Amino acid sequence: MADNAVPHAPLAHDKAAPAVDRIIFGPDDVDLARSPLAGQFPQETYVLGAFNPALTVLPSGNLLLMVRVAEALRRPVFGGMVHAIRWRTDTTEGRYGLDGWPLAEVDTSDPRKFMLKDGGWKVMALTSLSWLLPVELAPDGLSVVAVHYDKAVAPEGSWQCYGIEDARISRVAGHYWMTTCSVSPERHSTTLYKSDNGLDWTFEGMVLDHQNKDMLLFEGLIGGQFWAQTRPLGDLYFAYPPGSPWRAGPAINLASSPDGRHWQPRLEPGIRPRAQTIATARMGGGAPPILTEVAGRRGWLTLWHGVEPSGIVGIYRTYWTLLDEREPWRQIAASEAPLLEPRADLTAPLEHLMYLRGVVFTTGIVDAGRHFIVASGEADLACRITHVPKDRFTA
């Protein structure tokens, strides 16, 4: 049995609640006058997206979203150059400043970034800088209780000078642990924060210094060890043999740690893309695995995203797998049908802000009795809350 696993007992508010699927927080809900970037440079900014939120339960019983706020320049192109925001120490105005590149030297086809030409390899800069905003919700996740601007997590060093992205929160061994993706020219790393109350976070350092977009801690110890899912990235993968059930490409790997800070990759493989379906040609971790029971089996429920190649970024959907309680590299139940798909109707009221379509990116889960409360980013734009009935999980 998993040691010190966080009990996901049903929350008291659940009384056969119906399935719910809605946008709960978006760009128009962010007050940029209270942003960490406010007053740092004269150019106007706007919220490109408020999305991909970590989800956890606070000691009060309320829920917490740790929302990624991507703050971008209203007019990034001026003076014949395209500009990016960067945390820096060489500015006279403040901690944040602007860098500019001549338009002839960049490719701006993706609204989220621009690629530098003729570098010999892929080099990019972002059109926004991301910081993390704690948004407190009611226990059912369907109304905002408070927005904690004073608790925002923002860049504090050169290792995250382009921002902090896509937090995930797990409760392990009596503490809240938050993994984040820190972006900089130095490295594309995974950084760790720790909290005793889910609101006040202490920076614990860098835990993975290679490019890794989705590190998720299991919510409980296994054999006295911390466990995590990781997803290293690269541009080169070795082929599986002809006839293999697996497809070469980004996959979900496993790592373990004695203390949550020092990680060793596991020899056992994790979840890999299947050869027979293009819908999961690329995959990555979504919600931190929780110990629960679905499909008549008990194990670690993990929600992850599969990406079908299409257009610039592809179509993102959410899938699920149940992992063995003691040997989490063993899959004991799963479904090849997606659990969540992108929903254009949810973002229809935000049509004036849309710049990307076909993406649901799940980032958190809470057990609420007869259903799970699932948090996702929708269209790289807003935060989506879904009540998923447990009878949806059939293998």
Automatic annotation (TrEMBL):
Pfam families: Glyco_hydro_130. Transmembrane segments: none annotated. One of its GO terms (molecular function) is glycosyltransferase activity. Keywords: Glycosidase, Glycosyltransferase, Hydrolase, Transferase. Belongs to the glycosyl hydrolase 130 family. PANTHER family: GLYCOSIDASE (PTHR34106). This is Glycosidase. The lineage of its organism: Bacteria, Pseudomonadati, Pseudomonadota, Alphaproteobacteria, Sphingomonadales.
